[in-house]
């Protein structure tokens, strides 16, 4: 979100050539807040501003622009300035930007970038989106196992200014294979004459470069890591993923789960609702909406099949909305809890029986409460409803209550079974559970409702 409040003042300082004052202002404001002000300017003025700010500081401000704004600026005419900016940006940020650029723009800018940075950008940008490789930075510190602590501290001092983090320092062998880890605290507390091999931790928690980003985020969260090393198939260290990058992943995955639960397809990126064209929103939603609408016709056929029962007991129609809402609500609650538990790896498909037993106990309690509510409703307001002569209002209320109770139990169990079954078949539980749940619960609910009522009322 851009903030235009300070933009005129910034432009005035640039126009007056008061670069010292401009830098003074920038020094007193956090780069993220400066980015909010500067992003409100047009492309030409943004580049004018960035050109008078120290390059490293300019890159930090640029990195806080949202990705769409970065793409706009990179696609402008200032190719050389963009090339210098890429050289200063954090490694993972510049790779993300290059992935989003038009290939023609990329081919115009990259030849202007220094060779080492250019090769690093091409390598990081080559990894598939959503993998650890696409998320990682190649900006990390390393040590050799035969170094003394004194030598290691001197090397860390040399590497620190250009590294994203030095709290974790990775130990590699002559083939760059990851063999251990030391923290900055380990180095400070160790004796100068000790070797790195003596103090390093060999049981390093790492991730493969092709792993999906979501398990990587869970791993960092589970082990309370500030960063996690990324290795390739040969065990060679190729990058690190820091905790701040994982925050972005968690936010994106949450956005994805919410949208999938609501049967929305397409890309699931946070913060892009207003930027996404209406036609794209339509395409992302229409498929499941049409499929579910067609399946919903089955519910209509069931109601039509029990038309005679409804004509004799019109009071049953009054409870159909409650039936649909209650089934959908209890099923959605169950599905949401199970999908979340699967995502957090609290349960696995092999735990299906345990989950079913737990949800069965919960559903029985819910069924009793809701059945009593339905029975009270019948007895309080059902006296004037159309019923065959001699039919007992209390017995009708009992039939409705029992039918509703069966619906609650079945909907809750379906809500638990669907995501677990999807996970067992290697499908996305969020995609399968919610769209299918509502329709299945409606169909089974109507069958249970009318079947139970017909049986108990003797029609």
Automatic annotation (TrEMBL):
Which InterPro entries did the record assign? Answer: CBS_dom, CBS_dom_sf, Mg_transptr_MgtE_intracell_dom, MgtE_N_sf, MgtE_transporter, SLC41_membr_dom, SLC41_membr_dom_sf
Q: Which SUPFAM superfamilies match?
A: CBS-domain pair, MgtE membrane domain-like, MgtE N-terminal domain-like
Query: What's one GO MF term for it?
Result: magnesium ion transmembrane transporter activity
Q: Which UniProt keywords apply?
A: CBS domain, Cell membrane, Magnesium, Membrane, Metal-binding, Transmembrane, Transmembrane helix, Transport
Q: Which Pfam families match?
A: CBS (PF00571), MgtE (PF01769), MgtE_N (PF03448)
Q: Where is the CBS domain?
A: 136-199, 200-256
Under the heading CDD domains, the entry gives: CBS_pair_Mg_transporter (cd04606)
Q: Which residues cross the membrane?
A: 285-303, 360-381, 393-418, 430-450
Q: Where found in the cell?
A: Cell membrane; Membrane
Its cellular-component GO annotations read: plasma membrane
Topological relation to the membrane, as annotated: Multi-pass membrane protein
Q: Which PANTHER family match?
A: MAGNESIUM TRANSPORTER MGTE
Family assignment? Answer: Belongs to the SLC41A transporter family.
Q: What is this protein called?
A: Magnesium transporter MgtE
- What's the source species for this entry? Anaerobaca lacustris
